[in-house]
Design goal:
Blueprint (H helix, E strand, L loop, with lengths): L1 E5 L3 H11 L5 E5 L7 H5 L8 E2 L7 E2 L7 H6 L2 H11 L3 E3 L4 E4 L4 H11 L5 E4 L4 E7 L2 E6 L3 E4 L1 E4 L14 H8 L8 E3 L3 E3 L1 H4 L6 E10 L2 E12 L3 E3 L1 H13 L2 E6 L6 H14 L15 H10 L13 H12 L1 E8 L1 H4 L2 E3 L20 E3 L7 E2 L4 H14 L5 H4 L1
Parallel strand pairs: 1-2, 1-11, 2-7, 11-20
Antiparallel strand pairs: 3-6, 4-21, 5-6, 8-9, 9-10, 12-19, 13-16, 13-18, 14-15, 14-17, 15-16, 17-18
Helix pairs in contact: 1-13, 9-11
Bound molecules: flavin-adenine dinucleotide.
Flavin-adenine dinucleotide binds next to helix 1, helix 2, helix 6 and helix 13.
Length: about 400
């Protein structure tokens, strides 16, 4: 059988290696970029958080999050690590069950996959963009700028729209739609959030551990906890990424940051009162010094409409309680996300009900498969998206006879 796979990213490479393993079939892997796994190289800040021990359907989103169940059961985390170990990659587990290559380098992951693609029955075509696919009587005809490639089975693993500079785009959705599939609305997820910049601009580079509430018209839509990074356009960091899917899909609204989640109002008030009585000559510039990052402390004081030059001893009760209130509820108006270009993953994609979750074969076109981010599946931050790419890629690449062949 001739098996064609479009896209040499995480899912496409996993599918190609799996499909070529028996040596019985001809596999052709088509990649439009000059090298394989370009996006993979940028993952996990160049470290590649390739999986997570907690990978299970509750960490995935889409119209049917349980769609991932079969692929994750068929190719769970341990089997993924065994697969990589066979390819020569050693891994290490960090906090939260996050799994990284032992080398700490994303290129190790790409390298071992690249080595495994060199097989007699596997042809890799780089710089080869697929511009169209057609169902024929006995299979598929795949159109590139230079040629038409026939295939008996086609696996589309073109990834999603996120991370445009790293190869993200709409091509996979277009190819699958041309074969009769449907696509949901697409949103950026695991992405930085734009906010009012009046206060945050001066905080560029500051990090804080916070509990964050995301509210829309006064109702609480989501909550996250962890590191927030302030930037010139708004906020970033793991806790913000956790909220970004909801913000992307629900719209604007407000973030409320509890910058001192482990300190009660009373504790904070008494700490500030001690400071005022102990240092009568100090100004409000240093009211929160030693409690929050200096720049963040000054920002909270300014947001309380207290001049930084005001003497600590002249602070009135109303001003003090305002500072305490803002430490526990620092509001930021959301002005959108940093978009698909900067997003790590696409929320939405090709409708999963149109695929059999046990095989990833299309229910519309026999012998057509899809894997990875192109489908309406997106995971939380922490290695879940790559685990989906590996599991779905391997499931799609598994060689089982289709109903059509058996008949
Ligand atoms: C900056 C960044 C950091 C990330 N970090 C992590 C992380 O640490 N952990 C994690 O789990 N996830 C992470 N992700 C998400 C993860 O990288 C993706 O979810 C995953 O790569 C999706 O795999 P895929 O194979 O479906 O798509 P991709 O890896 O995007 O691969 C698709 C491939 O198809 C090719 N292609 C597309 N169209 C065509 C065409 N018409 N013809 C030929 N080739 C085509 C593309 O060039 C690309 O190489 C990150 C994403 C980004 C952008």
């Amino acid at each position: 059988m001739n098996i064609a796979i479009i896209g040499a990213g995480a899912a496409g490479m996993a599918a190609a290696i799996t499909a070529a393993a028996s040596g019985e079939h001809r596999v052709i892997l088509l990649e439009r970029q000059a090298r394989v796994g370009k996006k993979l190289l940028a993952t996990g800040n160049g470290r590649c958080n390739l999986s997570n021990w907690n990978a299970a359907e509750q960490h995935y989103h889409g119209a049917s999050p349980d769609f991932v169940r079969h692929a994750l059961n068929a190719f769970p985390v341990q089997s993924t690590l065994d697969f990589f170990q066979t390819l020569g990659l050693y891994t290490v587990t960090e906090s939260g069950g996050r799994i990284y290559p032992y080398s700490d380098q994303a290129n190790s992951v790409v390298d071992v996959l690249r080595f495994a693609l060199v097989r007699r029955n596997l042809e890799l075509k780089l710089g080869c963009e697929v511009v169209g696919v057609k169902k024929t009587e006995d299979g598929f005809l795949i159109r590139t700028a230079e040629e038409q490639i026939p295939a008996d089975r086609l696996i589309i693993a073109c990834g999603g729209a996120a991370g445009t500079k790293l190869g993200g785009g709409l091509s996979g959705y277009q190819l699958l739609r041309s074969l009769g599939h449907h696509c949901t609305k697409l949103y950026p997820s695991l992405v930085q959030i734009k906010t009012d910049t009046d206060l945050v601009r001066s905080l560029k580079g500051v990090r804080a551990n916070a509990v964050i509430r995301y509210e829309l018209r006064k109702s609480l839509l989501a909550r996250a906890e962890g590191e927030v990074q302030f930037t010139e356009y708004g906020v970033s960091g793991p806790a913000i990424f956790d909220l970004s899917r909801m913000i992307s899909t629900a719209g604007e609204g407000e973030l409320h940051l509890d910058l001192l989640p482990t300190m009660s109002n009373d504790e904070l008030l008494s700490t500030l009162c001690i400071r005022i009585s102990r240092y009568p000559t100090m100004t409000c510039e240093d009211l929160l010094t030693g409690i929050l990052h200096n720049r963040l402390g000054r920002t909270v004081v300014r947001a309380s409409e207290i001049p930084l030059t005001q003497a600590l001893t002249s602070l009135n009760w109303k001003q003090l309680t305002k500072v305490v209130e803002l430490c526990h509820d620092f509001p930021l108006q959301v002005n959108g996300t940093m978009g698909m270009e900067n997003a790590q993953v696409t929320a939405g994609g090709i409708v999963t009900q149109e695929f059999d979750p046990k095989t990833l074969q299309s229910r519309i076109v026999p012998e057509l498969y899809a894997a990875g981010e192109v489908l309406d599946v997106d995971g939380d931050c922490g290695g879940y998206n790559l685990q989906w790419a590996w599991s779905s890629g391997r499931l799609a690449g598994e060689l089982r006879e289709s109903e059509a062949q058996r008949r």
